[in-house]
Amino acid sequence: MQSLEREQLLQDGYCKFEGILSPGTVTALRAASDRLLDALPREQAEKLRAQGSLLPTTGDPLFADLIADPTALQALALLGFRRPTFSDGYVISKPGHSPRLFWHYDWFAWEDPYSFGPQPPQLFAMYYLSDTSRENGCLRVIPGSHVHHNPLHDVLREPHSAILSQARDMSIPEFSTRPDEVDVPVRAGDLLVGDARLLHAAHANETDERRTLITLWYQPELRAMPEPIQAQMAAKVQHTPAWWPQEARDKYSALLATYHGPAEPYGRQLYRQGPINEASCVSARSSPKR
Ligand SMILES: O=C(O)CCC(=O)C(=O)O
Question: In what order do the strands lie in the sheet with 211-219?
Fold first, then answer.
């Protein structure tokens, strides 16, 4: 029998686990994130107005505990993924009074047929360090867009390009309000798991407070994927800095995605419509609105 969360992940492309982190852990993560964010030069923050800062989680060994958090790994096991691997993680912080985050996907192996199958090839694990709402920039998603072609796919350009990150032109489709989008507000300490192929964005942060999120990327079943994808995942791994304590290095290294075969990693392949989601596009268009 599959869990309700797994059902939602496969059907909608995301699911939520409430209260995975204790308030004490959230406070400690917020302190570690604030230290990294406060050290960031102002010009760098301005370049990333829409998405906010994007700092690697290798910046503090405390993040090793989060990446290997037993309760979070149990949640992944409940989704059917008992041996996930980890590649990279980021502290993403939207400053107060920052614009919307653009619509995008975070999967880049679209020339491989595996990318059109039902299995999530890669998962985001998102932990927001404050409660989120429309006011402070909660996540927005288009349910089902991880496996169904969506009209938005036809007009999206390179995700995370400078024009998008700097939010220079808010009239482009990447910043639009979509008829099929839904808000995904969470409480600090919840774990939001999603398929890397899912179309997602975030509301503007209209408050005075920074809204910080830690995004971790896991591969639920690395060895089930074609070798060029395994190589691509291993190539994006962030390795532990030498200054981390050995215990944190060991904990982190045990989860890392590896590939030692002959295949070349795929480059950054942008979305194209595939054979499976071509068919599902028709059913998506004719299905009733949520
Ligand atoms: O800021 C968010 O809520 C989502 C961040 C995200 O998806 C990204 O920056 O790729």
Answer: 14-17, 191-195, 123-128, 211-219, 85-94, 53-56
Burial class (CB in 10 A: 0-12, 13-18, 19+), 91: buried
Q: How many whole angstroms separate alpha carbon 107 and alpha carbon 195? A: 9
Range of the domain at 111: 4-286
The residue to mutate among 90, 123, 139, 141, having the most atoms of ligand 1 within 8 angstroms of its beta carbon, is 139
Pair of tokens at residue 272? 């194209």
Q: Residue 22: give its domain's CATH number.
A: 2.60.120.620
**What is the number of structural domains in the chain?**
1
Q: How far is CA 98 from each of CA 13, 167, 199, rounded to the nearest angstrom?
A: 26, 9, 20
CA of 202 to the centre of ligand 1 (A): 7
Summarize pLDDT for 143-164 with one digit per residue, the tens.
999 999 999 999 998 887 888 8
Looking at residue 48, its pLDDT comes to 76
Residues 197, 205: Cα–Cα separation, whole Å: 24
CA of 261 relative to ligand 1 center, distance in Å:
32
